[in-house]
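lol ok so funny story. i was supposed to be doing the assay writeup but got distracted and ended up predicting the structure for this chain instead. priorities right. anyway since i did it might as well share w the group, maybe its usefull for someone
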Amino acid sequence: MEIKIGVPVSPGIAIATVYLLDAEEIGIPRRFIRKDEVPGELARYDEALRHAKSEIEDIRDQVQNAAKGEVSLIFDTHLRILEDPSINDEIRDRIRVDRYAPEYAVSRVFRKVTNAIKALEDSYFGQRVSDFQDIQRRLMRALTQVKTDAIDKSANMIAIVAHDLTPSQTASLDRNQVMAFATDQGGPTSHTAILANALGIPAVVGLTNITNEVSGGETIIIDGSRGRVIINPDEPTRKKYEALAEEYRSREERIALSATELESETADGKRIVFYANIEFDDEVKDALESGAAGIGLYRTEFIFARHPKPTEEDHYNTIVSSLKAAGNHPVTVRTLDFGADKFREGAGLEPEENPFLGKRSIRLCLQEPEVFRRQLRAILRASVFGKLKIMFPMIGSLKELRDAKAELDAAREELKEQGIAFEKNIPLGIMIEVPSAALIADQLAAECDFFSIGTNDLVQYTLAVDRNNPAVGHLYSHTHPAVLALIRNVIQVGATRKIGVSVCGEMGGNPHLAVLLLGMGLRIFSTAPTAIPMLKTVMSKITVAQAEKIADECLKLAGTQDIDQHLRGLVNAAIGEKLV
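and the output, tada:
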């Protein structure tokens, strides 16, 4: 028996037979075409595009029928990328002007797009690379007429073990055949992880080399709640997990009431606000239908995947679309949050030895005022279309906040001089995601209207741990006492200063951790739309007094593991359900 620890991304327990899935690779030679071949090759590309679009529409419809939540939107995003004029025009230009074969043109253009996303130097957006790779592979298969190897239909009760899975592969898994999956790569916010969760497939990712440590036909236990994979379990371990799996299934059945109809409040009637995190304007409608009271985090960086150099109008149109879709609900627009690599080419910027500690996010925006000003002007102009809030990311000092506010004031003055309308009293907030900001929260609170705690980065910067590095990923913990102390300080400052405080990282979407945050005084949660129904259900079963008692007991403990175990037991007991 061997136990491997990875990243839990979709809860549940499965005991199944290993089915090894080989990586899907299509070799693309550097091939050019003759001038007289251009019309035919353009037509071949257009036919491949139609075929890929039809396949994605089929997958979207399949997911819509099978999955909980609005995850079919992931494939609406794939369709939008596939139909993106900037991508298609460049591919056609490579075929028409550079005489690239369509396969080579697709490869070059998609490589450029994925490199641009990687240059954002944000773990969340980095995990979107798999979406573009998924679309590229689909186009390649259509062009080369190479069919992907399907899972043997005669195999039953299997657990897929693979280097990685694309969103399309995940969505195509037969839930009656595939009990769970485990992969070498992957992260908690990837679309593959989101799909696994929505489809109810237990999954553990980031196992580094699980594909080299199992053989097809072996028995494997995948615990998607705790991130454990057990290879060839002994009989006592197997029986233990069979019981745990049954408990989990029973709990899911009991808790599967219509959570979207529940009031957003605790068992003792205290109001809780649930906002949604989004990255595209057309996600707003589905976020609101999931029970969100508005958009707590609108990530604006993804516009750079479509437009390498977005204009003010590009920013403006996207934000206006979001505000119109939100109607009377608030939308919090986070200003650009990416790394310097996005601007290195042609800008004379030197590569950085440690980009996560370098010129990124608000630091980059303050040093690239033209880029920052374009977006700020667009945000201000869009503000007349709805309840807009502005949020600056990665503020680490009072000076940075004041400098960012000065840029915003300068943008306001420009618009005034030009006679362009905008809302005068737009709420302004900041993200608390570096320890220095958490420690001087009282000073920062005097100069802004709200805080949003970005727990993903706050944990990384507090513990000096790259959560995407398998060698140290196990050290990454939301419940480290130092992290909890910083979060508690920010919440207390917000209460004293009477400004809103929310949590917008993964921590707020975890039911156990959400109860801990509730007990620490948090009343606003901004999370993935698919997490909201479960959070509402859990909150409806617990009183604030119970949550406060749980928080008090956990905060007295010194070790992360002790806090995790104690928290799990206390929350399960308080709500009368075992959240495995």
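Residues 273-426 form a domain with the TIM Barrel fold (CATH 3.20.20.60). Residues 359 and 367 are 8 Å apart (CA to CA).
back to the writeup now i swear
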